[in-house]
Amino acid sequence: MVVKNYLPFLAILLGGISFPFLSTAQVKGGVKIGLNISNLKGPAETDLDKGTVLESTENYTGFHMGPSFSIPFSDRFGVRGELLYSKKGFKYKYQGTSPRLFRYDNNQGFGGTIGQANLGLSVNFVNLDVPLMAYARLGKLELSGGAYLSVLFQKVADGALQYSWKNLDGTEGQIELYQVHNYNKDVIGGADDSETITTQVNGRNVTLPRTVGAYYDFPEDKGNLYKSLDYGLIGGASFYISSTLYVGARLQYGLVDLTNNNADMSRYLGYPNNREDKDYNYNIQVSVGFNL
Known about the structure:
292 residues; 12 strands; disordered N terminus; 12-stranded mixed sheet; mainly beta
């Protein structure tokens, strides 16, 4: 999108507009709290033979809270900045064909399977959001728009993977692995070995950890799956119940591909096939706030 190239200039422009007023304008403080209804928007993986959509995402409900400051230029116009602790994320589901490689016990090599995967994850981000907006007051209604910068300092997920396959002799196998992911800290092949399960793949024993980390299936380091910096556009409206108390709603639209394509592996094709798709933050905020 062409607008990406201009986003840094938008923040500079808003700051530049306000600078001449800083020596004379009064800075007003405030505080706000509310809900986030967030998602990660991007193209879904599909079955190349049947065209069936294999993955989907659903909204995640989190919250935001923090202080705000306003610099009014007049009774109607001004700029506002905020510093928000914000929880975002999304719910992820993959259901369909997926290959999987198993390591046989006693160093007897590897066995490959093509089976059916049913994976569900709740992905949670803890962000520090810094929106900077220009606003206009129309009676009790306030319209605002600008840009935001967001630092993702915690990225975790939990869920479960159910996987079933057919062995060479026609027998069927099935496993369930709990998913406990810390995308910042997990290591390649990382898992919790305190509890294991045993199954058979093509007539040979396979012992697996019950709980696995984010990069358990990776044979080499491809980096963190999710990036740590996001920025984008923001716009919304607020209604003032009194001269200081308001309720509002706004939309955050990310302009950064939050997934590291090198580590974004295809679940349909398996490792080492990565995906080159773009996944953007999409967040609706509903807030109640108080401005002095």
